[in-house]
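Supplementary Methods S3. Input chains for the assembly prediction are listed below.
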Amino acid sequence: MDELLAGIEQLVLVRALKASFVAYPIVNALHIMSIGALLTSVWLMDLRVLGAFCSLPYAAFVALMRRTAFAAFAGALVTGSLLFSVRASEYAAMPIFLTKMTLILLAGANFLVFMRVCRARGVEVPAGGVVTVLAVLSLVLWTSVLFAGRFIGFLN
Amino acid sequence: MQSPFNGIRRVALTAAVILAAATAAYGHHGWSWTQDGFFELRGKITAIYIGNPHATLDVDAEGEVWRVDLAPPSRTIAAGFTEEVAKVGDEVTAIGHRSRDETEKWMKASRIIVNGKTYDVYPDRVPPA
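Predicted structure tokens for the full assembly:
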């Protein structure tokens, strides 16, 4: 594992990013843009599931937000991996970084459970106790991912 | 349909708790996490990192390894401190401010002296001559 992390740090692209005055802030900004879009789409989607903005058609709105969230997550994954790579072994040893990764996995699992529940029910607008709990969990988990991520820059 | 606002309140509360718990332990960015008075550390360099998001040295001082934060790479290199001018094992004096939390072996340096040369990575924050 240590060798793999050290190997990542030695990649040509990663070494260039580590030393660059321009590329790193740009990647950083794109990461912020991605997580901004991700959190916004997740919040709007989950609030719609919870019954807010009822005037908007459920299926079309949720589909648009989900597509936005997927694209934003892909962007966050690419840019986040690049930010991680410059000091891979350092970040991999930080409890707050591992907390963030765990929260992302939990949020992903929560999404899969939500999809299963919706499919099993086969209704157009899923509602009820389980759906509410999953939507609130989604909000809590993704917001916690954001907070954990920000604290990587502030804790050693 | 249950009101979404119980959920929202719960989220806001969770966020507030995380924030409150975390502000007790903030540091790293800026100087707010460091003590006001100057601090000087002498020791042997055990690791040098000059890169984003900011350069660091690991320094062995009497058997304890300290983390010394420097400036972002642009500023650190502009001050003349590059991977060519120091190596692991060199004696270093770091002058700056240590963490307010004295259990942390962690400081942020405005000036470092290696091999007889002085590098001011934060020239506006070095001790008055």
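Residues 2-151 of chain A form one domain. Chain A has one domain: 2-151.
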